[in-house]
Amino acid sequence: MASQPHDGPDNEGLVSDGPVVRFEGVGLRYGRAPEVLKDLSFELQPGSFHFLTGASGAGKSSLLRLIHLAMRPTRGLVGLFGRDTATLKRADLPFVRRRIGVVYADKRLLDHLNAFDNVALPLRLAGAAPSDYAADIMELLAWVGLAERVDAYPAALSGGEQQRLAIARAVVNRPDILLADEPTGDVDQEMALRILRLFVELNRLGATVLIASHDEELVARSGRPVMHLAGGRLSLTPGADR
């Protein structure tokens, strides 16, 4: 898969040897409703791999959105790559977001682009030339089982195929952080394990991985640490020794 250089308006200020994600006393509420997230304090170290579990409505997607800078906390500190996100310059935000790959629960594929071009979009936006990434995209599409669907548009793909395409797009530029919101929700168990192996391989290459999932069997088989959300608060279950 193609790898993009980490350059940006303030690159030196966004590189740290410490945690890539840091929450300190984070709370989140929508309007005047009770807090969805309460006093969350945790760190994700470079190269770590965690699952995020919890009942529907527990706040898993909200937590992922805070990391991806899609929203701001009501209170507390969210740090990325050694910086308090509240103090980031506007010019730095696109650069930071490019370092975070996201697999959304609703996929968010572009209907007017075929499978190849949907996956290529992050690289194209980063300024890469098609000649530099064409082979990588074909390899990645083959890995997620879409080698024969390169020219297909999202409307012609099944729900599972769309999910795999969304995963390929999220990981094509080897992000530093990979967030996935129910990435195996529309696939069978065999494909779920194949997708898990892809996440594991990206983790071995250095990506910090956080997957929100209801798939208890997949979580158990992974042997990875589990962050569990309940009542707006987090608890951590260590994974098996690896």
Any descriptors?
disordered N terminus, alpha/beta, single chain, four-stranded antiparallel β-sheet, 242 residues
3D structure, described in words:
With 242 residues, this protein is α/β, with parallel strands linked by helices. Helix content is 31%, strand content 22%. The protein contains seven helices and ten strands. The strands form two sheets. It has a six-stranded mixed β-sheet, sandwiched between helices. A four-stranded antiparallel β-sheet has the order 2-1-4-5, with helices on one face. The protein starts with 20 loop residues before the first strand and ends in a 5-residue tail after the last strand.
Write the layout of secondary structure elements.
Layout: E1 21-28, E2 37-44, E3 49-54, H1 60-67, E4 75-80, E5 83-84, H2 93-98, E6 100-103, H3 115-125, H4 130-143, H5 159-171, E7 177-181, H6 189-204, E8 208-212, H7 216-222, E9 226-230, E10 233-237
Parallel strand pairs: 3-8, 3-9, 6-7, 7-8
Antiparallel strand pairs: 1-2, 1-4, 4-5, 9-10
Helix pairs in contact: 3-4, 3-5
